[in-house]
Design goal:
The complex is a heterodimer of chains A (113) and B (114). Chain A starts with a strand and ends with a strand. Chain A has no helices and eleven strands. Chain A has 113 residues and is mostly beta strands. Chain A is 0% helix and 50% strand. Chain B is mostly beta strands and 114 residues long. Helices cover 0% and strands 58% of the residues of chain B. In chain B, strands 2, 4, 5, 9, 10 and 11 form a six-stranded mixed β-sheet that branches. In chain B, strands 1-3-8-7-6 form a five-stranded antiparallel β-sheet, with no helix packed on it. Classes of the chains: A mainly beta (113), B mainly beta (114). Chains A and B meet through strand 4, strand 5, strand 9 and strand 10 of A and strand 4, strand 5 and strand 10 of B.
Chain lengths: 113, 114
């Protein structure tokens, strides 16, 4: 059973560009959450998708947007990249109405130059 | 607004010593608390999940306790090994949340010296 997968592993972009990150949840999971982790800090919640809709959002600007597909996979899009967007982006999957643990993917390391 | 704090930020111990990692949270209305391990530049590996109705959870050399009323959780790692060197993060899930949002602490970076 494949766990949570993310692509790409690493990405280098220039300020002002746009980026798309991808996540496939663990088999059987229906909810995908995205987190941003700056170096030396804990992950910060960006948003969460369930039934192809954004259900919760953290304190991130509209430059951060997402999408969930019918197969539960998800994309995170960031427009007009800033140097401060450089971080590890983590995807987590879970069952929405379950009390069980959440599973995280290996992350995508984004570097903005 | 829920805030999660982990003290100390870094810890160095000789091999064989027991590790005690602390996590505190400001809002006791939590659904559960999860401890994670993170190796440098990698994703998060779930270690233990404690439901709000539980007092502790154990897995091998790991034991986590939860005192919801005082807003504290402690992760104990017995007989530490160099392979335990990593960053340990705690995260809380709020009760009756619209989703499964987790609020994380800043982590404790652990170094176990041979």
């Amino acid at each position: 059973d494949a766990g949570v997968t993310q692509s790409p592993t690493h990405l280098i972009k220039t300020r002002g560009q746009q980026v798309t990150l991808r996540c496939s949840p663990k088999s059987g999971h229906d909810t995908v959450s995205w987190y941003q982790q700056a170096l030396g800090q804990g992950p910060q919640f960006i948003f969460q998708y369930y039934e192809e809709e954004e259900r919760q959002r953290g304190n991130f600007p509209d430059r951060f947007s997402g999408h969930q597909f019918p197969n539960y996979s998800s994309e995170l899009n960031v427009n007009a990249l800033l140097l401060g967007d450089s971080a590890l982006y983590l995807c987590a999957s879970s069952l929405r109405y379950s009390s069980y643990e959440q599973y995280f993917g290996p992350g995508t390391r984004l570097t903005v130059t | 607004k829920q805030e999660v704090t982990q003290i100390p930020a870094a810890l160095s111990v000789p091999e064989g010593e027991n590790l005690v990692l602390n996590c505190s949270f400001t809002d006791s209305a939590i659904y559960n608390l999860q401890w994670f391990r993170q190796d440098p530049g990698k994703g998060l590996t779930s270690l233990l999940l404690i439901q709000s109705s539980q007092r502790e959870q154990t897995s091998g050399r790991l034991n986590a306790s939860l005192d919801k009323s005082s807003g504290r959780s402690t992760l104990y790692i017995a007989a530490s090994q160099p392979g335990d060197s990593a960053t340990y993060l705690c995260a809380v899930r709020p009760i009756k949340a619209a989703g499964n949002k987790l609020t994380f602490g800043g982590g404790t970076r652990v170094l176990v010296k041979p």
